[in-house]
Amino acid sequence: MISVNDFKTGLTVEVDGDLFSVLDFQHVKPGKGAAFVRSKLKNLRNGNTVERTFRAGESIGRAHVENRAVQYLYSAADEYTFMDNETYDQFSLSGDQLEWELNFLQENMTVNIISYQGEILGINLPNSVELKVVETEPGIKGNTATGATKNAKLETGLNVQVPLFINQDDVLLIDTRDGKYISRA
């Protein structure tokens, strides 16, 4: 058990039989009444985000999730096959479990698998990945004052806004948390 006063971003807790990751929290001490903790939690099983309020000092269960390094091998239909780097066991996840992650997943990429008591909840990507631009319009010199962007389609199918100097076949560094352009690789 853990007190809600000890919440940290990224902490995994069990509330009402579901597993949640703490995205954000705020300790509130009103002038009148008891203190409480307002939190934003992400359900690790279905990806939904909920806001919950707990009384200060309330205890909830702490969930110990396991992270293991795995390698993405290939996809077939709507199944994505991974291999455990230690045991060489192979397993598949459905496209529904990897909705956002598919924008960044490349063959032979190493990611971390998140599991809880043998149940696979999803994967953790690195904070940034290198992806190649497969389609973009050429930037026209002199058509901007400052900070203009254009659309670029990457090798995984993700569309991002990039500066005008980016050309087709450039390799870009993309943030996997929000899908935005960071820099050229």
From TrEMBL:
<feature type="domain" description="Translation elongation factor P/YeiP central">
    <location>
        <begin position="67"/>
        <end position="121"/>
    </location>
</feature>
<dbReference type="InterPro" id="IPR013185">
    <property type="entry name" value="Transl_elong_KOW-like"/>
</dbReference>
<keyword id="KW-0648">Protein biosynthesis</keyword>
<dbReference type="InterPro" id="IPR014722">
    <property type="entry name" value="Rib_uL2_dom2"/>
</dbReference>
<dbReference type="Pfam" id="PF09285">
    <property type="entry name" value="Elong-fact-P_C"/>
</dbReference>
<dbReference type="InterPro" id="IPR001059">
    <property type="entry name" value="Transl_elong_P/YeiP_cen"/>
</dbReference>
<comment type="similarity">
    <text>Belongs to the elongation factor P family.</text>
</comment>
<keyword id="KW-0251">Elongation factor</keyword>
<protein>
    <recommendedName>
        <fullName>Elongation factor P</fullName>
    </recommendedName>
</protein>
<dbReference type="Pfam" id="PF08207">
    <property type="entry name" value="EFP_N"/>
</dbReference>
<comment type="pathway">
    <text>Protein biosynthesis; polypeptide chain elongation.</text>
</comment>
<keyword id="KW-0963">Cytoplasm</keyword>
<feature type="domain" description="Elongation factor P C-terminal">
    <location>
        <begin position="129"/>
        <end position="184"/>
    </location>
</feature>
<dbReference type="InterPro" id="IPR011768">
    <property type="entry name" value="Transl_elongation_fac_P"/>
</dbReference>
<dbReference type="InterPro" id="IPR012340">
    <property type="entry name" value="NA-bd_OB-fold"/>
</dbReference>
<dbReference type="InterPro" id="IPR015365">
    <property type="entry name" value="Elong-fact-P_C"/>
</dbReference>
<comment type="function">
    <text>Involved in peptide bond synthesis. Stimulates efficient translation and peptide-bond synthesis on native or reconstituted 70S ribosomes in vitro. Probably functions indirectly by altering the affinity of the ribosome for aminoacyl-tRNA, thus increasing their reactivity as acceptors for peptidyl transferase.</text>
</comment>
<dbReference type="Pfam" id="PF01132">
    <property type="entry name" value="EFP"/>
</dbReference>
<dbReference type="InterPro" id="IPR013852">
    <property type="entry name" value="Transl_elong_P/YeiP_CS"/>
</dbReference>
<dbReference type="InterPro" id="IPR008991">
    <property type="entry name" value="Translation_prot_SH3-like_sf"/>
</dbReference>
<dbReference type="InterPro" id="IPR020599">
    <property type="entry name" value="Transl_elong_fac_P/YeiP"/>
</dbReference>
<dbReference type="GO" id="GO:0003746">
    <property type="term" value="F:translation elongation factor activity"/>
</dbReference>
